[in-house]
Amino acid sequence: MSIYLDNAATSWPKPESVIQAMKKYNDQIGCNPGRSGHHLSVEAGRLLYNTREIISNLFGVSDPLRIAFTSNVTHALNIVILGLLKPGDHVITTSLEHNSVMRPLRELELRKVELSVIDCSKSGEFNPDLIHKHIKSNTKLIIATHASNVTGTILPIAEIGKIAYEYGIPFCVDSAQTAGILDIDVDKSHIDILCFTGHKGLFGPMGTGGLYIKKDLEKSIRPLMFGGTGSRSEYEIQPDFMPDKYESGTLNMIGIAGLYAGVKFINETGINEIHQKENALLKKFLDGISEIKNVTIFAPEKIENQVAVAAFNIEELSPSDTSFYLDENYGILTRPGLHCAPSAHKTIGTFPQGTNRISFGYFNTNEDVDAAVKAIHELSDQKSKGL
To answer: Are 170 and 190 in contact (CB under 8 A)?
Structure first.
């Protein structure tokens, strides 16, 4: 049986309640919310609102209608980046960003949007004080990941948010690696826009995600798509209010049913319990491989500044070969390469070969860690002996 250690890509397995919620929706409801007048459409609409509500409570959002659903966090980030910025504007980000942030920003550079990328340290730490010298009169957005998908480093979003607030600049957070794992309060951290995905720490299925936008800021963010929303159907122009402005077309309601169940599981389990268990597994793993010769670990200095993502390399063994051998010989599933974050790998000095990444989830066990450490130890020994 395989040992799944790729939770930073997609959490798996899902809680059984998630699977059952999706099956129930398919078997008992199965229709569009807000598009019809029959009782099943009303039931779908109720579930949709309840999911907005449970997610808004998770993030400290007072109004559930400030939550708009998307197909994933990349979709949400593109709405924000492409919808807010225009030629002549300036945006600030960090060198740890995923391509879901960097690629739309680089595209906008071609459209005369100015970009400042602030370097993080070799271990991935970010100094928020560096933001001050990059702010300009035309700075219209500060955008940062909450935690790196390469090193697991947690960025100080509260401090970044405070700086953005002082300058009156909208602050957008990519919570792909932290939603459902770390406490997030949009008001306390001065987060104006929060982008999240459903299929990772929220335990939902693929094809789910969304964004929170602070009241009135949506007036400055153009939709990425236009079309039917089930509201204001008498007009041929897009609604200008949340969440309808960003929800054209039929939503992935069966996925949203699963997402609701995933967040409910988090509430019942406790977000701190989830984080503590995952980081206990991370600590056990890092302690285990830190004494293995020929193994290099890429991580922040303190494990408290890290989510359960571990990047490492075995000397003279490529990340792809390491991942292949772990899978083929030990049934351990990992993620090699650049992890769609070349800038982050340039920051930690692992570009272009990348690293091998192990990422733990709530359903992993100490036995999984022991198996991974043993396998890496054996691979290192074999390599040092020229086998």
So the answer is: no
- Asked if pLDDT for residue 382 goes beyond 90, the answer is no
For 117, other C-beta atoms within 10 Å of its C-beta total: 18
Looking at the fold, whether 163 and 294 belong to one and the same domain comes out as: no
- Quick: pLDDT tens for 127-182: 999 999 999 999 999 999 999 999 999 999 999 999 999 999 999 999 999 999 99
Measure the CA–CA gap between 114 and 86, rounded to whole angstroms: 10
- 210: Cα separation from own chain's centroid: 11
| Rounded Cα gap, residues 312 and 328, in angstroms | 19
Domain boundary (214, 243, 269) is at 269
Residues 189-246 have pLDDT tens digits of 999 999 999 999 999 999 999 999 999 999 999 999 999 998 888 899 999 999 999 9
| Cα Rg, the chain, nearest whole Å | 21
CA separation for the pair 302, 151 (Å, rounded): 12
Cα-based angle 80, 82, 84 (whole degrees, multiple of 5):
60
Domains in the chain: how many in total?
A: 2
Judge whether 149 and 177 are in contact, CB under 8 Å. yes
Range of the domain at 281: 270-384
**Gap between the Cα atoms of 174 and 13, Å rounded:** 23
Q: Which residues pair with 3 in a beta bridge?
A: 332
User: What are the DSSP calls for 313-361, one per residue?
Assistant: EETTB-HHHHHHHHHHHH-EE-EEE-TT-HHHHHHHT-TTT-EEEEE--
Q: Give residue 252's Cα distance to chain centre.
A: 19
How many other CB atoms are there within 10 angstroms of residue 71's CB atom?
Answer: 18
Measured distance CA(181)–CA(266) in Å, rounded: 9
- Structural element, H or E, at residue 381: helix 366-384
- Bond prior to 342 in cis (omega within 30° of 0): no
Strand 335-337, strand 355-359: pairing: antiparallel
Nearest CA-CA partner of 117 in 142, 154, 100: 142
Query: What DSSP element (H or E) covers 310?
Result: strand 309-314
Q: Tokens representing 162?
A: 């405070």
DSSP state of 138: T
Contact 309, 150 (CB under 8 A): yes
Assign residue 282 the CATH number of its domain.
Answer: 3.90.1150.10
